[in-house]
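ok so for the tutorial part 2 we go from a plain amino acid sequence to predicted structure tokens. step 1 is just haveing the sequence, like this:
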Amino acid sequence: MRVAHRRTTAVRRLTAVTLGLLALTGCGGPDDGPDDRQAATAKATATASVTSAAPTPSPDGTAPSTASSATAPSASAAGANAAARWAGTKQFVQIDDARTAGGRTYLSVRPAEKKPHPRFEAWVIVPGEGPYTEVSMTEDAQVLLSVPLGDAKHPAAYAQDEFVGRLTARPSSDRALLGFDLSFDGQGRVTRVQSLYTP
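step 2 — the prediction. this is what the tokens look like for a chain of 199 residues:
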């Protein structure tokens, strides 16, 4: 009797341990799994997080930005500030580059200095320092060029597109030796360009 009782007790214990192990390992039927409501809540939370963190494209489509981030001043805004400074004045400058876009000519300029040549009736260009600023020309701006950018010692009139072509055809090292007198209107646009004669 004692032996039978011990065997029955051992079987019961073994059965209890087996059921406990099955519960711990998560073995069950096909209906077992994560709760549908918990899964939906987690998915909604993740979607909201991604949506709120995703950057939105800038108006020109070039760089992402967020609505709360402060925008840095653009290069065009910096150019507008410089042009406003020069409105209604005459400036002596170097022109590093020129381009046409939308029927308008744009010049990349930097203030410089000029002084008379010690031996010729010409000018010596003293390069400026600092960055170049892009300014625009009016559609009817006058362009007068002398040697070496023009064909003669005395200034002659050229079309804006021809001026751009002649300037950009020269290497950057040559452009640094050229100087220009610019006249600006009240809105900071260039109304007259004259290159200085340099031998």
